[in-house]
């Protein structure tokens, strides 16, 4: 989700601190004026992307490189030094070949196109290579800004296109770029997004040069189209149990904020809330957990011993690593298993792939060896595990019947928390394991580095 912001930081450094309005900064400005001003004037306040975001960025880079293979005669223009990128792009236009990463600078505007491809009558097409599997609404102003910059430097632009990932592609041998990508024409959408472009650009340039940071209210745009990296700072005025933590209640939360109600405990008794949100409000007011003993007993009574507590870890690469796999298909490379026999101490087991080879066959063999033939299999959010198991059955038919039986034995530990059979104020409106675990035990994920460190009260 921070792919856009990682790119703008890279451009910021590449331009040696110049205050150019780049396409990434333009998208930031559309989302939030304060974000754009901060990216230019106080960039240190924007946190570096975490490891998960860096992984998304790297996946995007891999897809970008593969996209170049759609144009075998293309010219790869080095992105650094910055001025040489612009100059070489200008010199290469006369060759009438596809250009990769061509920098287009017009006064205070700058865009670097993924692909600038020659079209008829001396015109050019702009093709953005995206790692997503669908064309998203935020791509329209992105392409519109690139076209605006291209026209400012004197280029005639015919079409704006997006080369997106084909999620139906199945790898068989070497990746076929022509099948991996779907190219869609979004010229009309870019035309619509370009309405008012000159005014928007002028306003953003004025904002970037302003000595004062703009003040704007928080709202749904803080997470649209991307989670804003300034979220924590802009929301720091909210109390601990603020109304935006209402369970599935962001829209309700913003409505309450507009009425001056920030804390859940201040929500009037007659205000319309869902049953779960009402429990949440009552817990905040009481400062204590909600416990539906009858519902929890019903849940626990369905468990059949031996009970197996099971969890997968997966990767979902944009470019499939192994034959027979699709883009973003989950590859399970690790599982953990704890078996509670009903009497006596539980036993723990695990599997971890040790090489870059396809781990699924070995993982399945170890699963079948370790999982008891009977009893409940407990997972947190079982839909995830069930989905992985189903895909494993499709890829390895010899295991299909056994995997179908395993899926039928799954019990979802998320259920009592999602249904608010148990709720603690410390969960802050979330049924995520990362919130439930510390609420129940006082211990966070950081305390689970080694099983010997986990001692949960019964």
Could you describe the 3D structure shown?
This protein has 18 helices and 14 strands. It is an alpha/beta fold. The strands form three sheets. Strands 1, 2, 3, 4, 5, 6 and 7 form a seven-stranded mixed β-sheet that branches. Strand 3 and strand 4 form a beta hairpin. The longest helix is centred in the N-terminal third of the chain and has 17 residues. The protein is flat and about 80 Å long. It starts with a helix and ends in a 17-residue tail after the last helix.
Give a short summary of the structure.
The chain is of the alpha/beta class and 458 residues long. The chain has 18 helices and 14 strands. Helices cover 39% and strands 17% of the residues.
Structural class: alpha/beta
Computed Rg:
26 Å
Major beta sheet summary: 7 strands, mixed
For the secondary structure, the number of strands is 14
Residue fraction in strands: 15-25%
Distance between the amino and carboxyl termini: 39 Å
What fraction, in percent, of the residue positions are helical? Answer: 25-40%
Mean pLDDT figure: 92
Shape estimate: flat
Number of helices: 18
Spans with pLDDT under 50 lasting ≥5 residues? 1-17, 450-458
């Amino acid at each position: 989700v921070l792919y856009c912001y990682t790119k703008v930081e890279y451009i910021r450094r590449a331009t040696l601190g110049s205050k150019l309005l780049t396409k990434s900064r333009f998208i930031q400005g559309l989302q939030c004026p304060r974000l754009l001003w901060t990216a230019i004037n106080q960039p240190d306040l924007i946190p570096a992307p975490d490891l998960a975001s860096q992984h998304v960025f790297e996946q995007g880079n891999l897809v970008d490189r593969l996209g170049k293979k759609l144009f075998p005669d293309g010219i790869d223009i080095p992105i650094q030094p910055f001025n040489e990128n612009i100059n070489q792009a200008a010199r290469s236009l006369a060759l009438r070949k596809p250009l990769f990463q061509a920098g287009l600078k017009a006064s205070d505007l700058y865009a670097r196109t993924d692909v600038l491809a020659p079209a008829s009558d001396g015109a050019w097409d702009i093709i953005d290579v995206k790692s997503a599997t669908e064309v998203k609404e935020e791509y329209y102003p992105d392409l519109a800004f690139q076209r605006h910059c291209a026209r400012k430097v004197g280029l005639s632009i015919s079409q704006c296109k997006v080369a997106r990932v084909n999620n139906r592609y199945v790898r068989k041998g070497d990746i076929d770029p022509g099948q991996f990508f779907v190219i869609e024409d979004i010229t009309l959408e870019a035309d619509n997004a370009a309405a008012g472009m000159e005014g928007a650009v002028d306003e953003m340039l004025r904002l970037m040069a302003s000595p004062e940071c703009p003040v704007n209210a928080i709202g749904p745009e803080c997470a649209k189209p991307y989670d804003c990296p300034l979220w924590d700072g802009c929301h720091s005025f909210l109390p601990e149990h603020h109304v935006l933590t209402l369970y599935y209640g962001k829209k309700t939360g913003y409505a309450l904020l507009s009425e001056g109600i920030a804390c859940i405990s201040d929500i009037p008794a007659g205000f319309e809330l869902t049953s779960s949100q009402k429990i949440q409000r009552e817990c905040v007011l009481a400062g204590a957990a909600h416990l539906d003993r009858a519902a929890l007993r019903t849940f626990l009574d369905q468990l059949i011993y031996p009970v197996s507590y099971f969890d997968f870890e997966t990767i979902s690469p944009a470019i499939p690593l192994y034959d027979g796999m699709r883009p973003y298909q989950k590859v399970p490379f690790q599982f953990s298993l704890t078996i509670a026999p009903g009497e006596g101490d539980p036993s723990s087991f695990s599997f971890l792939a040790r090489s870059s080879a396809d781990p699924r066959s070995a993982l399945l063999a170890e699963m079948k060896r370790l999982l008891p033939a009977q009893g409940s299999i407990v997972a947190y959010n079982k839909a995830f595990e069930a989905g992985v198991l189903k895909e494993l059955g499709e890829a390895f038919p010899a295991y299909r019947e056994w995997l179908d039986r395993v899926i039928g034995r799954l019990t979802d530990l998320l259920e009592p928390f999602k249904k608010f059979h148990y709720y603690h104020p410390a969960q802050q409106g979330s049924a995520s394991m990362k919130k439930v675990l510390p609420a129940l035990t006082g211990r966070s994920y950081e305390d689970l580095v080694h099983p010997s460190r986990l001692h949960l009260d019964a």
